[in-house]
Amino acid sequence: MAEEQASEVPVDVDATLSGAADAGAPTELHALLEDARTKADEHWNQCLRMQAELDNLHKRGVRDLENAHKYALEKFAGALLPVRDSLEMGIAAAGQGQNIDPAKLIEGSELTLRMLASVLEKFGISEVNPQGERFNPQFHEAMSIQLRADLEPNTVVAVMQKGYLLNDRLIRPAMVIVSKAAPGADAGSGPNSGAGVDVRA
Fold it and tell me: Rounded to whole angstroms, how far apart are CA atoms 195 and 135?
C-alpha cells in the first residue's frame, strides 16, 4: 500500500503545477492582447494622421500650382501699370484743348517709352534690332528683298518691326528688308554670297 501511495504523489504534484500554470496563462495572454491592441490603435491613428497630412500637402500643392499659373504675371503687370498711367495722362492732356505743345507731347511719349523699355529689361525682354547686320533666319524674318550694289548680299537694309527675346529665347522675329546683289554684280564674291534669304509675304 505504501508503494502505491508513493507512486501516486508525483501525479498529484504534476496536476497541481499544471493547474497553476493553466490558471495564470489567460491573465498573461489577456495582458499581451491588450498591449497589442493598444499598439495597433496607436499605429492606426498615426496612419490616419499621416494620410490626412498627405492629403493636405496634395491640396496645398494643387492650390499653389493654380495660383502660380493664375498670378505668374502679377509682378510684370504691376510694373506695366505706371506705363499705362503715363499713356492715359498723355492722351488726356492732348484732348484738353488746342494749345498743346507738340514738343511736350513728344517728350512725354519718349519718357513713357523709356519706362516701358526699363520694365521689359527688368523682366528679361530684350529687343532684336539688326539694322545693318547680316540676315539671320533664326532671329529675322525677311519681308522683302532690295537690290543694293553698295551692300553685301543678305544684309539687313531696314527693320520694319523689331524682334524680341525673352531670356535669350525668341518670342518675335524682327521683320526686315534684306539686300540682294544688283544685276551684273559678282554674285560669287563677298562673305555672304552663299547665304539664303527666306522671304515671307
Answer: 8
Dig out the grid coordinates for 149 from the structure.
550694289
- Among candidate residues 179, 181, 183, the one with its CA nearest the CA of residue 154: 179
Split into its structural domains, the chain has a count of 2
pTM equals 0.61
Residues 115 and 142 in one domain: no
DSSP character string of 49-62: HHHHHHHHHHHHHH
Residues 116 and 136 in one domain: no
Range of the domain at 103: 74-123
Type of residue at 12: D
- Domain assignment present for residue 33? The answer is no
Is 27 inside a domain boundary? no
Q: Parallel, antiparallel, or unpaired: how do β-strands 125-128 and 163-166 relate?
A: antiparallel
The angle, 0 to 180 degrees and rounded to 10, between the axes of the packed helices 102-122 and 74-94 is: 180
Is 143 in the same domain as 106? no
Distance CA 163, CA 131 (A): 11
Amino acid (one-letter) located at 8:
E
How confident is the prediction along the chain (201 residues), in pLDDT tens digits per residue? Answer: 444 444 444 445 455 445 544 545 778 888 888 889 999 999 999 999 999 999 999 999 999 998 888 888 899 999 999 999 999 988 888 777 667 788 888 898 999 999 999 999 999 999 999 999 999 999 999 999 999 989 999 999 999 999 999 999 999 999 999 999 877 655 444 444 444 555 554
Grid coordinates of 157: 537694309
